[in-house]
Amino acid sequence: MEKRDLWYLGAGALFGGLFVYLGKKKYYGSEYYGVIPDDKKSKIIGLIESGKTYKETANELGLTLGQISGYMYKHKHSGTKKPKKAKVDKDKLLKEIYDDMKNIPFKREAGDYDGPQIRDNEVEMEFRHLGDWEVSNDDRYDPDNEDEDFSDWDWEEWVYGEGDEFAKRFREWAKKYSWHDKVKLGIHTGEKNWAYFSITLKKSV
Question: What is the pTM assigned to this prediction?
Fold first, then answer.
C-alpha cells in the first residue's frame, strides 16, 4: 500500500470518528431535541418515574420521542445525586432515650425499680410490684406434690388485662419523643413480681 493510500485511510478514520462524536453530541444535546418548555421538563421526569414509556410520555406531552430520549439522557448524566440519608449517631440516641426513661411515670407507681440501663442497642428499666399481681392457677403451690418446694412458690403474674394496659401506656409515653419511630418497645415479666420495659433501636437505624 502506498503512502498516499495510508494517508487517505488515516484521514478517513479521523473524520469518521469526528462524525460519530458530533452525531452523538447532536443526538443527546439540545440541538437534537430542541427547546422544551420549562413547564414540561418536570412533567417528563414525573411521567417516566411513574412508569410511563418514553413513547407514551412523548404522546401525552405533545413532544417527539427524540426530545424525550435526549432530555432523559441529559437528566440521568447530569451528575445530580440523591441526598444521602443522614447517619444516626446510635450512642447519642441511646443516651437520649436513657435520659428520657428516667422520667417514665411508672417509677411513682412501683414498689421498687432499677435502671435504666443501656445494653447494646437497648435501654431497659425494671419495676417491681407495678400494678396488680396474682398467682397463676397453673403455678399454685400443691402441698401434696413432693417435687415442689414451697420456697419456690413466689411466681406471680399480672392480673388479666394489666399487661395490655401497661403496654398501651408505654406506647403513649414513648410517642411524646422524637425517637419513637426509630425503636421497638417491649415488656415482659419475671419472678419476684418484676416487670421489664425495654426500648430497642430498630435495625434500620
Answer: 0.54
